[in-house]
Automatic annotation (TrEMBL):
SMART domains for this protein: LRR_CC
Ranges of Basic and acidic residues composition bias in the record: 1-10
GO CC annotation: SCF ubiquitin ligase complex
One BP annotation, GO: SCF-dependent proteasomal ubiquitin-dependent protein catabolic process
UniProt name for this protein: F-box domain-containing protein
Species for this entry: Capsicum baccatum (Peruvian pepper)
All residue ranges annotated as the F-box domain in the record: 39-69
Domain F-box/LRR-repeat protein 15-like leucin rich repeat: 79-178, 196-569
Renumbered residue ranges of the record's region Disordered: 1-33
Pfam family, one: DUF7885
Length: 572
């Protein structure tokens, strides 16, 4: 295990006697009062709750526990992402939800294949296995006829992988691979399988070429979803994707979701051998598209993107990343699909200004808006955004908005669940206060908030957020140097306060925190729902004793001592 992996420690959310005690009322007569409600009423209420809240309700009283036991067999899906169960815990959870057809598991603590194989009943149709660093390729053969998303780390035995993969591919309708070296093996196995009917393919590669795309579409004519991302190591365009490659997409007549993205992870590369003609090919051959994501197309002008908007009348999701030639008129060109678009993401498009959003109110179904990295977006944008009453997720990272903009956004009284204003450097505590002013809808709905990299944020803003945001579960304060120990103690010390609901807290590089910002020993109620804590580049990490003590006190809590963003996504 390398040094980075060693710093991703795991630990437990407080439970046991502390959890039992929390379920009692101060006068001891909570349980008798439950007798006022019939089992039918209680079950009817519980049927409207998701799995996490059902488990919380079960701890409240024997009556609720009994009602939840009745409800669990009817739960259709179980998502354990964000948790790191061991084999025994996983077995127990799956036994409690025998009707679940969809199952998502974080496999970081699974030490062998049997951990997964033992819980694979015939009822499970959709299986997602994340962070499978300890599992072998034998797991592929055991999976059988299920939709599958699986993350492997590397390819130590190519021939073994190819054989196991071929056995699985005879039935599986969906596959996601995240290792470029496995793609050739995958394709080789696919060609030998009769009646192969893969419908969804996701690949992360070193380079997307014409040959690769043409081979994919000819080998897999029944594709419904195609997701390709490459991460070049050089700026060379030799062998790069061109308009010819995109023209081949016309053979995928069933395609409804297309994503082609060039990442800048390894170098600042972009697709330089494609222009608007490539987009014309997509618009002519893929008119059934409902979801489009395109990133890194440096030479595609607005005409190219507009052709897709005019042709794909069922479009629900439209995302462009790093499109330097995209101008404000892009929204005007969406008149034909404005009533169907649910998600609109225009990220790192340097020419976009606030005026691009002037007619946003015509998007009557819009729930997600992302203009992150569009640095010319200013205070007028929140005014336009405030007219979209259906909006629940908003990302304005790196915008030039000020406290005035946040006040305008707050005045719109939108039911925002996720909000990111990271790197909006002109925002202060005053802006945060105006956002949550007068018990607006956002006070009841906001669950995820990112205010990282804002130098003028201090403890006062944290007090405002913790007091006003009643549903907050994820809070990012990374690189907020004005945050001190007092804010952290406030988040820890109130077991019945809003802040006690926090599940993810990012304090990375909060230089105002001392080594004792998290006092030891931890009280039973402190951070009792927290799943992930980021403390990289703080003095807390430098004091290894404190760091280790936190991990020991909460064995199921992931404590990140490096600089990962929410959730330690790599997991290795």
């Amino acid at each position: 295990m390398d040094e980075t992996a060693k710093r991703h420690c795991t630990g437990e959310v407080a439970g046991g006697s502390g959890g039992e005690k929390g379920g009692e009322s101060s006068d001891g007569d909570f349980e008798p009062s439950m007798g006022r409600f019939t089992d039918h009423i209680i079950i009817d209420v519980l049927e409207k709750m998701d799995l996490e809240y059902l488990c919380t309700a079960a701890c409240v009283s024997p009556t609720f526990n009994s009602a939840v036991a009745y409800r669990l067999p009817f739960v259709s899906s179980s998502d354990l992402s964000g948790f790191y169960p061991n084999e025994e815990t996983l077995k127990h959870v799956v036994c409690r939800v025998p009707g679940a057809k969809s199952l998502t598991i974080e496999c970081l603590q699974m030490r062998n294949d049997s951990s997964i194989i033992k819980i694979l009943g015939e009822h499970i149709e959709d299986l997602s296995l994340l962070k499978c660093t300890h599992l072998s390729y034998d797991i592929l053969r055991a999976i059988g006829e299920r939709s599958l998303l699986i993350e492997f780390a590397g390819c130590d035995a190519p021939e073994l992988f190819k054989r196991k993969l071929a056995e699985m591919l005879q039935k599986v309708p969906l596959l996601e691979q995240t290792d470029a070296r496995l793609f050739v093996l995958w394709l080789d196995a696919v060609r030998k399988i009769p009646l192969f009917n893969l419908r969804s393919l996701s690949l992360v590669l070193d380079l997307i070429s014409d040959d690769l795309l043409i081979t994919v579409v000819h080998s897999l004519p029944h594709l419904v979803e195609l997701d390709l991302e490459d991460r070049p190591f050089t700026l060379s365009s030799v062998g790069d994707l061109t308009n010819i490659g995109l023209q081949a997409l016309k053979f995928c007549e069933c395609l409804i979701a297309l994503s082609i993205v060039r990442s800048k992870m390894n170098c600042p590369a972009s697709f330089t051998r494609m222009d608007k003609k490539g987009m014309f090919h997509v618009s002519e051959g893929c008119k059934r598209l409902e979801s489009v994501k395109l990133g890194g197309f440096a030479k595609v002008t607005e005409d190219g993107y507009s052709s897709i908007l005019y042709s794909c009348r069922n479009l629900k999701k439209f995302e462009l990343l790093t499109s330097p030639l995209l101008s404000d008129s892009v929204i005007d060109n969406m008149t034909g699909v404005a009533r169907s678009i649910v998600e609109l993401r225009l990220s790192s498009c340097s020419l976009l200004t606030s005026e691009a959003l002037e007619h946003l109110s015509s998007f009557c179904k819009l729930e997600v808006l992302d203009t992150s990295g569009c640095e010319r977006i200013g205070d007028q944008a929140p005014f336009y955004i405030s007219k979209v009453t259906t909006l629940t997720r908003l990302n304005l990272a790196k915008a030039r908005i000020t406290d005035v903009g946040l006040a305008l956004l707050g005045a719109g009284d939108l039911p925002i669940v996720q909000l990111c204003i990271r790197k909006c450097e002109k925002v202060t505590d005053k802006g945060i206060k105006s956002l949550f002013h007068a018990d607006r809808k956002i006070c009841k709905t906001l669950s995820v908030l990112d205010i990282g990299y804002i130098p003028k944020i201090t403890d006062a803003a944290i007090f405002t957020i913790a007091t006003a945001a009643k549903a907050l579960t994820d809070l990012s304060l990374r690189f907020c140097n004005g945050v001190t120990d007092a804010a952290v103690q406030m988040l820890m010390d109130r077991p019945n306060h809003n802040s006690s609901q926090l599940q993810m807290l990012d304090l990375c590089s909060c230089r105002g925190l001392s080594a004792v910002a998290i006092l030891l020993p931890l009280p039973l109620y402190a951070f009792h729902r927290l799943r992930w804590l980021g403390i990289g580049l703080t003095d807390i990490v430098s004091k290894r004793g404190i760091f280790s003590a936190i991990c020991e006190a909460r064995p199921r809590l992931v404590v990140c001592g490096v600089c990962c963003d929410f959730g330690c996504c790599d997991g290795w």
